[in-house]
Amino acid sequence: MKICVDMNKCTGLGICESVAPDYFEVGDDGELRVLREEIALEDVSDLEESVTSCPTEALWIEP
Ligand code: SF4
Fold first, then answer.
1. Which residue of 5, 12, 35, 43 pairs with 30 in a disulfide if CB–CB is 3.0 to 4.6 A?
2. What is the topology classification, in CATH, of domain 2-62?
3. Ligand 1 contact, 34 CB (< 6 A)
4. What whole-number distance in Å separates Cα of residue 45 and Cα of residue 53?
5. What ranges do the domains of the chain cover?
6. Residue 53 has what pLDDT?
7. Which residue among 3, 5, 7, 13 has the greatest number of ligand 1 atoms within 8 angstroms of its CB, and so is best to mutate?
8. Any ligand 1 atom below 6 A from CB of 59
9. pLDDT per residue over 2-43, tens digit each?
10. pTM for the whole thing?
């Protein structure tokens, strides 16, 4: 599974980073960076939480 971001929707609030810091990082410039795309099995629930917590619905998971 893979985490995907619509950068046109992301506003760099960083909630995803606080839920899954191994996967997301908001830089000093306010831009979100995806640190890894492939989701490890043990991280699936964290990434699902990041998807539902994103206020702009910019995240989704692809199988
Ligand atoms: S929670 Fe959503 S809007 Fe905020 S940085 Fe992450 S992807 Fe972007």
1. 12
2. Alpha-Beta Plaits (3.30.70)
3. no
4. 12
5. 2-62
6. 98
7. 13
8. yes
9. 999 999 999 999 999 999 999 999 999 999 999 999 999 999
10. 0.95
